[in-house]
Amino acid sequence: MKMLMIVALLAANPAFAGDTTPADQIARFSAEAGQPADAARGKALFSANHTGGKPDTPSCTTCHTNDPRKGGKARTGKAIEPMAPSANPARFTDTAKVDKWFGRNCNSVLGRDCTALEKADVIAWLASL
């Protein structure tokens, strides 16, 4: 019976179903970069307009909005759940998804892969909201 309750709780709350946490992701990318994350740098990167990527996605805010506690919309019209873990507890709890979406979105916005430090910075800022 206890096992059934645990399984039900995990299924009902995706934040518990992931393999990691936002803090673990920050630690992973900070260790890879060899320096600590900085939320202010993350906010600046997230909010800035960039010229290296696709012209229709010059900024993270193009799809994710200026307030990461609110949902956004992909260019395809698909809804995007809030980026801030305070508004979306499942955010940054699945390593495969974190790697997939940073890969896809950094190339779209920046025209290149994000560095480990950029990833740590952005997650640090989003986790601070």
Structural write-up:
The protein is globular and about 35 Å long. The protein has helices at residues 2-12, 14-17, 22-33, 39-47, 61-64, 95-110, 116-128; strands at residues 72-73, 79-80. The protein has a single domain (19-128), classed as Cytochrome Bc1 Complex, Chain D, domain 2 (Orthogonal Bundle). It has 129 residues and is mostly helical. Strands 1-2 form a two-stranded antiparallel ribbon. Mean pLDDT is 90; it is low at 1-16. Strand 1 and strand 2 (79-80) form a beta hairpin. Helix content is 53%, strand content 3%.
Please name the defining characteristics of this protein.
mainly alpha; disordered N terminus; 53% helix; single chain; 2 strands
H/E series: HHHHHEEHH
Mean pLDDT over all positions: 90
Count the DSSP helices.
7
**Assembly of the depicted chains:** single chain
The radius of gyration is 15 Å
Taken together, the total number of domains comes to: 1
- Spatial arrangement of strands, main beta sheet: 1-2
The name of the CATH superfamily reads Cytochrome c-like domain
Query: What structural class do helix, strand and pairing data support?
Result: mainly alpha
Shape: globular
CATH topology: Cytochrome Bc1 Complex, Chain D, domain 2
Let me know the largest β-sheet: 2 strands, antiparallel
Overall CATH class? Mainly Alpha
**Total beta strand runs:** 2
CATH architecture descriptor name: Orthogonal Bundle
Percent helix: 40-55%
| End-to-end distance | 38 Å
